[in-house]
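User: My instructor asked us to take a sequence, write out its structure as tokens, and then describe one feature of it. I'm not sure where to start. Here is the sequence I was given:
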Amino acid sequence: MRIAISTGGGDAPGLNAVIRAAVLSARNRGWDVLGSKRGYAGLLGDDDVVPLTGESVRGIMAHGGTILRTTNRGSPFAYPVRNADGSWSEVDRSDEIMENARNLGIDALISIGGDGSLAIAQRLVDKGMRIVGVPKTIDNDVSGTVMTFGFDTAVNTAIEAIDKLHTTAESHDRVMVLEVMGRDAGFIALYAGIAGTADVILVPEIPWAMEKVCEKIRARDAAGRRFSIVVVAEGVTMPSGDVGVMGESLPGQMKRVGGVADTIAREIQERTGKETRSLVLGHLQRGGSPTGYDRLLATRFGGAAVEAVAAKKWGHMVALQSPHIVTIPIVEVLKESKRVEPDHDVVRTARAVGISFGD
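Assistant: Let's start with the prediction itself. The structure tokens for your sequence are:
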């Protein structure tokens, strides 16, 4: 048996732990393992396909990022090509990737990625490629799995930032608005906000009003708590309907969201008269060494992916359905993205301890 591994989409702490577990599990079965660099670029001949051995993955468990590198603009069904005049176009290279995989003697592929990568994987499965998926996103927005690796590390990075903001906010009687990642899902903001004892949490799933946010800040002032911490998910929509967009996206990329914290901070300052500062945590949440939880979950996913290959679970994704790792069809995963449920017990707990959601 010869399998290949690819990592696509944004990086997440724990990717190397998945690769390590998959390689060691496969090698212990006597299988050959290849790694496709930069997602599918390696299999398309635009980057390398490298052999992966026990030596290749030695010592990588604690490292962030991915030794195979990654990209969020390399779909073989809409591959970006630079034209002679400098413009961009997209071409379908899916037949090419199928042929190259056959020429390399690849029997199956383990695709590690989020919703976008899993959607690509399903289309390749429909063309006849044998694929097992591994869910990867710091946003924790992949359906079918209780948790994705990288999420815990991102949350802990945000908590550390909130802890530091508390001391400077209290010293200056300021309002601090911290923007965290998550795109259209508010899980990082919710979990980090609660654990970091934020005063206001704004998530895309719960409509909010600026005056309600300011009411919370004024109430804290009246109670002698003259500082406030506001944690906002980057995908939050302003009550006016505006969204934050940070910079231009490259061809084939998703729109870059973010920057809404600055708008919120300016309006809080105007309405309350309190000095307000904003901070975008950004890609710090993607970097660094994964937490112990993420290392363990990623290792379990990697080992389970090889078991799924051995069981010929083509078109399935490994998932955590506590306390077990299971496999579920990718088509089921893609039916809907996971979002924060406004009546979830975590949200109710936050409300119970006095956190405002601006509603």
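For the description part of your assignment, you could build on this observation: The radius of gyration is 22 Å. Try explaining in your own words what that tells you about the chain.
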